[in-house]
Amino acid sequence: MSELSVNNLLGIKYLNTDDLKLIFKTADNFKEVINRKIKKVPSLRDVTIANLFFENSTRTKLSFELAQKRLSADVVNFSSSGSSISKGETLIDTVNNILSMKVDMIVMRHPSPGASVFLSKNVDSCIINAGDGTHEHPTQALLDAYSLQEKIGDLENKNILIVGDIMHSRVALSNIFAYQKLGANVTVCGPKSLIPNDISSLNVKVETDFKKALNNSDAVNMLRIQNERMSETYFPSIREYVKQYGLTKNILDSLDKEIIVMHPGPINRGVEITSEVADSEQAIILDQVENGVAIRMAVMYLLASKLK
Q1: Average of per-residue pLDDT values in the chain
Q2: What is the number of helices (H) and of strands (E) in the chain?
């Protein structure tokens, strides 16, 4: 397969297994490029990309911008603070105004779930979802799966554990879809109050015993508590949470086997993961960050090749 089955990247849900494999294969080539002395290629020289971030972001925004510059694209950055959005302008009006300036592709992060899908139905442009509320974060899941595959090979029948705030995490949902499409078994773990009631409909196993869940896994993806998305209290205290679900070096060393540790960032050191674990040999957190640029280059390159 030489092209993606989709014209936008709205969520992992809309991709098939061949799409994932094509993105990974393309990322391999770009990873080689960004490790050269001259890190730029002219692949998107005539493409203009607008980054629309209606929600705070550091790593994702930087990663996309760097990927765009490595591909020689023209980049326009838009932030909602101080924009016409704060004056009451609608999302569609804002985007159409930007598109009238002849923009080919839009990378958007938005606090509302489904914002990118809504936009794709109402404007004529290629849309890349950089995170929409508690819904999906497709490029994060792609770089997570790619980084893990690099470390442990084919994910077919591998056991992957996702720990933490599953309910409010867009990373969790995209991860579940990506790992399953690659043939892995997914288990989620965390306080019952932070695990959605309908999670079993996604063919995911739920385990509340953290140590038992870790012992049955090849890799663990530790998620932070999404305090900014919570309107109520979901567990007694941070101290209580750390005691039950915080990953320490002692816990890792007590397991029957060595497992890979991942984290999408930002890390709350001393809460879901200790510094000792985050900086250990078993953690591939910095590999995830590096691979994020190659994966985003691959996604934009493949989608740009489908532009009319």
Answers
A1: 90
A2: 11, 9
